Amino acid sequence: DINVVAAIGDSVITASGASATSFLQLYTENRGLSWCIGGQWGWRNATTLPNILKMFNPKLIGYSYRDSYSFHWDSQFNNAEIGAVSKELPHMAAQMVTRIRTDGRVNFKKDWKLLTITIGGNDICAYVCTLKDPESLPMQHRRSLLKMLRYLRDNLPRTLVNIVSVPDVSTVVSIKKKPMMCWILHHAECPCWVGPLHNSTKESRARWARIQMQYRKVEEEVAMLDEFRGLDEFAVVHQPWTRNLSLMKGNEVDYSLLSYDCFHMSQKGHAQAAVAYWNNLLEPPGKKSTGWKPGIDVFRCPSKESPYIYTYDNS
After folding, report:
1. Considering the domain boundaries, does residue 295 fall inside one?
2. DSSP letters of 109-140?
3. Which InterPro entries does the record associate with it (predicted)?
């Protein structure tokens, strides 16, 4: 029944550098390979949520076709931007609704839409340490989420919104014995956690980690609010597959999951993320997976008893 896919967020969704093998390729946005909104090739070559959904509905629209920026036609309904932060969510949502509403292929009132939202990495990596009151950031995140979700509820009919928390940034910045290029790039990509620019210390990193945990708590709480429950044509669900991600393969870091900067995901990482996300969609609240598995060792299918995506109301 899903006819349209869309996404709002940051470089986690733009698939920045997913196929990068050099520094210059890191800022190529490989949107066609994005775990939640990429539709390049098919699922055998690029395992993404849209490529899985296309097996059920070949007429699916909204997925990114190939490398592109958000203002290119090929990006379709991938409204994510490198460097985006939480306070930009309401504006990004309005842009996306306009893009969908004005697309002649979409039956705006009748087509079912699946929207993925992932944001917060830039807030925690580069923004939090510039504030006079960093502890106020989770409440600001809550206000942005609420404003965006209320707008979507009132302006985007027949929509399932999935909020996916950003993976723990410490998972990548704390990698020991990482390549020199990764060490250098982490200073630029996550200066609040790494390097002298903001006097990063063990104590400050612990402080940012607590704020990051509050971000996740806010996202889960907002998704479960009564004002988004019991609606026939709108639902919000928190998908927790990013909560306990591991990059380890035995006793070693599996760098094949990471891009050239050891920060963003590689195409393999996006494929593994797509499977984890797909599994979350088919798991009821309270029983959802909180990590990812290598390859497709676990790949859930709709059952005869529950042939649908779970929400808080149908589980």
Report:
1. no
2. TTSEEEEEEE--HHIIIIIGGG-S-GGGHHHH
3. GDSL (IPR001087), Phospholipase_B (IPR035547), PLB1 (IPR038885), SGNH_hydro_sf (IPR036514)
Angle formed by the axes of helices 202-223 and 137-155, nearest 10°: 30
- DSSP-assigned states of every residue in 161-190: EEEEPPPPTHHHHT-TT--HHHHHHHHHH-
CATH number at residue 53: 3.40.50.1110
The answer for residues whose C-beta is within 8 angstroms of residue 71's C-beta and 6 or more apart is none
Closest C-alpha to 12, from 246, 214, 169, 216? 169
Spatial distance between the Cα atoms of 146 and 237, rounded to a whole number of angstroms: 13
- Over residues 77-108, the pLDDT tens digits come to 999 999 999 999 999 999 999 999 999 999 99
Q: Is the pTM of this model over 0.90?
A: yes
Residue pLDDT, tens place only, 165-183: 989 999 999 999 999 999 9
Which tokens hold the place of 195?
Answer: 């390097």
- The alpha carbons of the chain give a radius of gyration, in whole angstroms, of 18
Residue 102 domain flag = yes
* Pair of tokens at residue 143: 């206000």
Q: What span, in angstroms and rounded, lies between the C-alpha atoms of 205 and 188?
A: 16
Number of structural domains in the chain: 1
Inside any domain, residue 181:
yes
Would you report the helix, strand and coil content of the chain in percent, each value rounded to 5? 40, 10, 50
Residue span of the structural domain in which 274 resides:
2-281
